[in-house]
Amino acid sequence: MSKLKIEDLTLLFGHEKEKALTLLKQGKTKAEIFKETGCTVAVKNASFSIKQGEFFVIMGLSGSGKSSLLRCLNRLIEPTSGSVILNKVNITNLDDKGLQKVRRKEMAMVFQNFGLLPHRSVIENVAFGLELQEIPEKERLEKAKSVIDLVGLQGYENQHTASLSGGMQQRVGLARALANDPEILLMDEAFSALDPLIRKQMQDELIDLQEKMHKTIVFITHDLDEAIQLGDRIAIMKDGEIVQIGTPEDILTNPATDYVSSFVEKVDRKSIITAGSLMFDKPTVAIYLKDGIEGTLRKMRTSGLTTLPAVSIDKHFLGFVYLRDVLEIKAQGEKTIKNAIIKDVPVAYADTTVEQMLPFIAENGRVVPVIDKDTHKLIGVVAQTSLLIETTGINWDHGTESPIDKIHKEII
Amino acid sequence: MIHIGDYIEQFINWLTLNFAPFFDAVKVVVESIVNSVEWVLMFPPFYVIIILVAFLAWKRTGWGIMLFTLAGLSLIWGMGYWAETMATLALILSSAFIALLLGIPLGIWAAKNELAGKMIRPMLDLMQTMPAFVYLIPAVLFFGLGKVPGAFATVIFSMPPAVRLTTLGLRQVPKDIVEATRSFGASSRQLLFKVELPLALPTILAGVNQTIMMALSMVVISAMIAAGGLGEVVLKGITQLKIGLGFEGGIAVVILAIILDRITQSFGLKTSAKA
Ligand SMILES: Nc1ncnc2c1ncn2[C@@H]1O[C@H](COP(=O)(O)OP(=O)(O)OP(=O)(O)O)[C@@H](O)[C@H]1O
Ligand SMILES: [Mg+2]
Q1: Which of A36, A65, A307, B194 is most open to solvent, judged by the fewest CB atoms within 10 Å of its CB?
Q2: pTM, whole model, 2 decimals?
Q3: Residues A354-391: pLDDT tens digits?
Q4: What is the pLDDT of residue B70?
Q5: A398 pLDDT band (50/70/90 cuts)?
Q6: Is B186 left (phi over 0), alpha (psi -120 to 50) or beta?
Q7: Which of A248, A270, A292 is the C-terminal boundary of a domain?
């Protein structure tokens, strides 16, 4: 179910918005429009929808319009055109009261610089949203207390926020948002101001919390590692435009543009790429009780492979057969490949990461079988070369020139 | 020749003529405020007031100012200017109170509304640079002689810092805090009272302090239109060339100024230290 739907949303900063909109329709770029009208195109025709319970990350370089887009969702900034639809209600049409209600009950926000009230204690900050809703003091403090426990701020209730470390302050920020029990959490670079270690810890805690809460989260970051770790899906923005939306793996394996690949190159792919995306799904296999010894040898000959995965007729993975062993049992006069099957081999599942498969490389000359978790049927194999490419991070496909190409260019 | 003076005179006359009932009402209200404050200050025996003020000074600042208060106020009493000092104090406190009552909302308005801000600013400049004596003329025309026109001139002269520092304080509230507050669905009222004013408070209190000090600086001038108090003592010293009398009045004003300044300043400091 789509929780939040953004339709053709555009945001311009500047005076000649009408003219800039027309130019935008004509397909002019951000730079051209700025030159002609002085308007900044902060967000350009953004359309996407976010599912209930989804962790949606918006990523992009500084100035790409992430914060602007996020602020259009709760109308801290009024979008120039387009609509934001929350649970079938068009937020862009709401009056002040309606908007207030959405902000109080349905969307709460966490900020990069925390935005806490320095004249109030931790618990008063956490209860602030409830106070704005005019909920009686006793009730709101109780609620605040329970959220404080949830985010690990016990014992800090009566401290002034200014005396807390960054990580603790952001816990207050998060608790303040959660105290409202919103359906949607908007987080603008919530962890960007924190030290790497604290940041990692907060990310992990947010993931744990999300497993319990199942909120719909829109999270902004300029860090792809963070996006990949947190996001169910990632939208990548450039110059106000969304250039790609997809799961972390989609983005890593099929970057839509050079811009996206330039991000992707910097990522530690080992822990993200899975067997499922690397595998070759129609491998040549020796089918036990069907191919027999002659059939197996023929397959080896035509494919040029000396090792084949062996499967049962209904595709259950049985092990590997080696040319040497098959020839040997043939000489012994066996009919089936049964005695040639080596079953003591490691297997991967579709979601096994490259990092986890690394130890398998040690054993030479073999593909890694990928089997279904439940049925144990063979669904594909991963070639060792793919594994090696992923681990060394060298991927000549995306723009970089291979050294051999270079040598060829220079010499031949 | 351009006779701006003529126009202003006509305008003031027109005001006096057409708004007489209004000015009368204002006069009654202001007079009763000043008189009640004066009554409160004069009703208890002098030592009670001295002890109370000294206690407040000790609470807010410490021993030094407390001792100064004890000594200073006792000296005033000893010189025989207790009644005049209390009259002056009543006039200053009432005027400052009215100036704040008008000035702080004006300051809020100027901070919230760009157009209002643009219009109020030159008016404040005018009010502050115009020689304070000039206010005496319309004051007398509107209210006759006495404490009320004195308070009127004092209010006009001392209001600008209250307006200015309120506006400044509100403008200085960090944008990200305002944004966070709005994101949680605060109404403009809630934003103002729960966030902006509390955060601007140290600056606003600095404005309060300045307003009181400006009001004090009007003591002698307002005595020219028979507002009474210590100003009258100093004025007598000047007009009758009684140097001793002039200085005695002057010393009493200075003592009052130091006590008021330190005590009101402490409020601003304490709040900003807390925040
Ligand atoms: N109030 C504003 N007035 C004019 N231009 C603005 C305003 N706010 C943002 N912009 C412009 O809009 C564009 C998008 O800015 P935005 O802050 O949304 O980017 P961002 O992706 O959040 O960047 P960062 O990572 O630095 O936070 C930028 O070109 C910025 O200069
Ligand atoms: Mg930003």
Answers
A1: A36
A2: 0.78
A3: 878 877 766 656 788 899 888 888 988 888 777 777 76
A4: 93
A5: very low
A6: beta
A7: A270
For chain B, domain boundaries: 22-274
Q: Identify from B179, B181, B182, B183 which residue to disrupt to test chain A contact, counting A C-beta atoms within 10 A and taking the largest count.
A: B183
Do A237 and A360 lie in one domain? The reply is: no
Structural domains in chain A (count):
2
Averaged over A318-338, what is the pLDDT? 88
Each residue of B240-266: b (16+ CB within 10 Å) or e?
Answer: eeeeebbebbebbbebbbebbbbbbbb
Side chain identity at B38, as an amino acid letter? E
- Closest alpha carbon to A369 in A4, A357, A72: A357
Q: Residue A139: what pLDDT?
A: 94
Among A270, A304, A320, which residue terminates a domain? A270
Assign domain B22-274 one CATH number from 1.10.357.20, 3.40.1280.10, 1.10.3720.10, 3.40.50.2300.
1.10.3720.10
Domain identity same for A104 and A250: yes
Tell me which chain A residues have a C-beta less than 8 angstroms from the C-beta of B274: 119
Q: Is the CB of A13 under 6 A from ligand 1?
A: yes
Low-confidence ranges of chain B (pLDDT < 70): 269-275
- Residues A388 and A336 both lie in one domain: yes
Both A331 and A231 in one domain: the answer is no
Within this chain, do residues A392 and A338 fall inside the same structural domain, yes or no?
yes
For atom 18 of ligand 1, which residue has the closest CA? A65
Do A65 and A188 fall within a single domain? yes
Q: Which of B184, B194, B274 sits opposite A103 (nearest CB)?
A: B184
Residue of A nearest to B175 (CA): A115
- Long-range contacts: B54-59, Cβ < 8 Å, 24+? B56/B263, B57/B259, B57/B262, B57/B263
Distance between CA atoms of A351 and A5, rounded to whole angstroms?
Answer: 30
Between the alpha carbon of residue B272 and those of residues B166, B203, B209, B259, B267, the distances in Å are 15, 8, 14, 21, 9
Q: Which residue has the tokens 């744990």?
A: A208
Query: Residue A203: its pLDDT value, please?
Result: 92
Distance CA A139, CA B270 (A): 31
Of A100, A115, A186, the CB nearest to B185: A100
Nearest by Cα to A19 from A33, A29, A35: A33
Mind listing the pLDDT tens digit for each residue in A177-209?
A: 999 999 999 999 999 988 888 888 899 999 999
pLDDT digits (tens, 9 = 90+) for A3-61: 899 999 999 998 888 888 888 888 888 888 898 888 899 999 999 999 999 999 999 98
Summarised one tens digit per residue, pLDDT across range A231-255 is 999 999 998 999 999 998 888 888 8
Residues A72 and A11: beta-carbon distance below 8 Å: yes
| A365 vs A347: CA distance, rounded Å | 15
Q: What is the residue range of A286's domain?
A: 276-411
